[in-house]
Amino acid sequence: MPFYRTDKDGTFSFEKYLFYRPPFHIVPQVLTNSAGELILFANNMQERGFEEINLNLGCPFPMVVNRKLGSGLLPFPNRLDTMLSVFFNENIPVKLSVKLRLGLKDKEDIYRVMNVLNQYPLEEIIIHPRLGIQQYSGKPDWDIFAECSKQHRLVGNGDIVSLDGLEVLKQRFRNVDAWMIGRGLLMNPCMLKPQLDWKETILKLHDCFLNKLKEFGLSEHQMLNQLKCFWEYPSQYLEGGRRVFRKLKKTGSLEDYEVLKKKLLGLY
After folding, report:
1. Mean pLDDT of the residues in the chain
2. Rg for the chain, CA atoms, rounded
3. Phi–psi pair at 149, nearest 5 degrees
4. pTM score, two decimals?
């Protein structure tokens, strides 16, 4: 899910087709440091049929961090505590989960923040064991994740892009029941079922995605933008895929897109 944040007028803007769609368990995420915004978002999502929302405390991008949003809120556990206290006092019938990093610049942030989170009935806590300032460089610190997992029921996240890598983590952390593997699956939808054919599987996924875009009534320009995003991760799975993807991002019509899509798949 993308994360949502308030507009300048203090309200949220949502796509007209953003509604809960069984049987998929979709959890909208919000970027905020305000109890009022968190409550407003929860109420908005409840009206649209969602049963859970996620508070994003992990986004590492400077324009977010500088506003004390995402991982920029982690050095301020007291402010987080106030926000969660007000939210839970409202007794909104929407579950809240949290996704966070180890800290912004200091790994000690995680211990202070976890002491706050431990006071509230969160649905789950997802930890990406990097600092915000690292963004996506370096390696996840699974040793600190291990310390936190002894005291809290966690979901693990970070650079899980292969079945072998996932199995190594599952063997090490037998008390962790859930892992975020989105990027790995987007690169290789056969990640959990290597017996499947990659090209056949990615085409099925692509066509399903395209049909949904048409169902939502998007214009050709809007569909093209979404299709370009679709190939960002699969192109990384292919040797030479990044080069073709750069060309694909510059295309201006669905007809030209189809030509480059076939060229991209021809690399497999």
Report:
1. 94
2. 20
3. -70, -15
4. 0.90
